[in-house]
Amino acid sequence: AQSVTQLGSHVSVSEGALVLLRCNYSSSVPPYLFWYVQYPNQGLQLLLKYTSAATLVKGINGFEAEFKKSETSFHLTKPSAHMSDAAEYFCAVSPYTGNQFYFGTGTSLTVIP
Amino acid sequence: NAGVTQTPKFRVLKTGQSMTLLCAQDMNHEYMYWYRQDPGMGLRLIHYSVGEGTTAKGEVPDGYNVSRLKKQNFLLGLESAAPSQTSVYFCASSRRDNSYEQYFGPGTRLTVT
Question: To probe the interface with A, which of B33, B98, B104 has the most A CB atoms within 10 Å?
Answer without folding.
Answer: B98
